[in-house]
Amino acid sequence: MTVSTVKTDHASAAVPPVARPTVPAHIIKDDAEAIAIAHTLAAEFVKDSSRRDRERIWPVAELDAFSQSGLWSINVPKAFGGPELSYATLARVIEIISAADSSIGQIAQNHLGVVAAIRTVSDAVQQKLLFAEVLKGTRFGNAFSEFGSKRAADFETRFTDAGDHVVVNGRKFYSSGALLAHLVPIVALDDEGRAWYAIADRGAPGLTVIDDWSSFGQRTTLSGTVIIDNVKVPKTHLVPGYKGYDKPTADGAIFQIIQVAVDTGIAQAAIDETVSFVRTRSRAWIDSGVDNAWDDPYTIQAVGDLTLRLHAAQALLEKAGHAIDRAVAEPTAETVAHAQIVTAEAKILSTEIAIAATNKLFELAGTRSTLAEHNLDRHWRNARTHTLHDPVRWKYSILGKYFLNGENPPLHAWS
Question: Acyl-CoA dehydrogenase C-terminal domain location, by residue (predicted)?
């Protein structure tokens, strides 16, 4: 296990905001272009991914390239100038990026989820305003989860009405992307207990983002503590997020499918590393009767098994993307439940293959694969950390209730 080298001497200091892009982001034409751009970016991101993990170097240039590429606006509706690509394509993009660097893949998750929520719950005026920001290359971070609440959906952060704006107070954690975001959507409750996205400027007075994320995995997701002290948010940027869950919509499945894609990306990276190491560095076992590690029959079987399981997860991921497309186009109890169920199935398989592939890497590659110089443990650390986002044991429960008793999944961002 790589020992954490996170520097916390100055963690209490606020991280200053970053400048907005000076030129508009590219707008992607179609699904094929999105996939091609993702592959081009991934080829660059992978080059220093190990060093960024080892030294916890923020992916500043990489994130700028990612958001300016047009991949951060692929679910903006065509009516507002966006590509409005399939969620199967969106998931594939996140998988490709995550195979190169899973932290970068995760950073985009909440941005894309908020874009989807704006489509679902905002009126046309607010959509036009906020989608225009996204098309310019503006990045949404997030300030959703809270550290000390009893359950993930229990929020203590609140806002009060102040005329043309609201004033928000609270404290957040697990705020992926917030450090280098341009706008920070804050989940805050109104006086009726309803959850809204109060989208604050990253440099707003009273909004403090602290670089104190110390997890052993997903180390450069630009997360940390967010302190919200009388932060003013204009009502133009107050999005009624609760409306995405008070009736059937695809919002929860959209947040979930991006989590799945990060995990299949990690699994792909681990299998690729296994194949590369076995073919270039590993030795054949003394009793195998073969000269090369890649001819070991047990290794051959194991790689075949891992690849098969990854392909099964990827197939369900693609199926889930198309199910979400249908639920977005026609949100009914039936279409939304179907999208949630297929996404839950994909989440189970993606979690299992991410853990299996990152663990099996060392068994098949051998002892020398554990040397610190290779930093291959980052894949296991990333898989173990990211798959904790929501427990797979509850996904099995959702499936059982649906198929046995006809009970639709609950409507929230974790389902």
Answer: 258-390
